[in-house]
Design goal:
Helix content: 40-55%
Strand order of the largest sheet: 1-7-8-6-5-2-3-4
Structural class: alpha/beta
Mean pLDDT: 96
Number of helices: 7
Bound molecules: zinc ion
Low-confidence stretches: none
């Protein structure tokens, strides 16, 4: 199968993820590219990120605020406004129920994105429940947002996005060329300073060799994704256009 490439730059794109930093890993290069071309980018983060520490003595209330600030910084580094929607569900306990779906549908109806991005909930052998549930919420939030009789109490006009892009895709079939935007993606990832040790394996941010190692790992993944479509550096997705 040959993957499709490069959607037309959307006017508005909404990225829905479980935790601060997921969007940057999944689609940071794509969002940086679109933002540079004038796209408005909105992050929606479903959980409070309060489990994101290996330190048993961590002050988790403080960690939540730190991670929100980091996510706003990452959004700005991608060229977005830094205005991030935080739903604030407890990290590790996200569910994809009606209340959460209503929140996502409301966010979609307010922002009116042309493209919605989210975790692929059908990725096999995925362990983290938040990623699975956030994926279902992106899919099911689109369904609810597009039809007028879902959540009428929102008193918001319904909205049907054109495309849903699922990152961490089980069966990727679309690649965005991110050549020229890899450094933006990495800069946005590094904005998540509290996560350097746990998700980026950087124990010491002053260590040039650890940062280089992280950069080379990011580049390796983007080369692998790009190869699906004959590109040097890409981000791969499952694209759903029949919304
Ligand atoms: Zn995550």
């Amino acid at each position: 199968m040959v993957a499709s490439t490069d959607l037309a730059v959307p006017a508005r794109a909404m990225a829905i993820a479980a935790h601060p930093d997921d969007v940057e890993f999944g689609a940071g290069g794509t969002l940086a590219k679109w933002a540079a071309a004038g796209c408005q980018v909105q992050h929606v983060i479903c959980t409070d990120g309060s489990k994101g520490s290996w330190d048993p003595d961590e002050d988790v209330a403080k960690l939540v605020l730190t991670r929100q600030a980091e996510q706003r910084d990452a959004s700005r580094r991608l060229g977005a406004s830094g205005d991030v929607v935080f739903l604030g569900w407890p990290d590790g306990e996200l569910e994809s129920g009606t209340r959460q779906r209503s929140q996502i549908a409301g966010a979609i109806r307010r922002f009116r994105p042309d493209v919605v991005l989210g975790h692929d909930p059908w990725r096999r052998y995925r362990l983290h429940p938040d990623h699975r549930h956030a994926g279902y919420l992106a899919v099911e939030g689109v369904v609810a947002a597009r039809d007028p009789h879902f959540f009428p109490e929102q008193a918001l006009p319904h909205h049907r996005p054109a495309t849903l892009l699922l990152f961490e895709a089980d069966e990727p079939d679309h690649v965005e060329d991110v050549s020229g935007f890899v450094d933006d993606k990495i800069a946005a990832l590094l904005a998540h300073r509290s996560q350097l040790r746990s998700t980026m394996r950087v124990d010491d941010p002053a260590s040039t060799s650890q940062l280089e190692q992280f950069r080379s790992e990011v580049f390796a993944v983007l080369r692998e994704h790009g190869a699906l479509a004959g590109l040097t550096h890409g981000e791969a997705f499952k694209a759903i256009t029949d919304l």
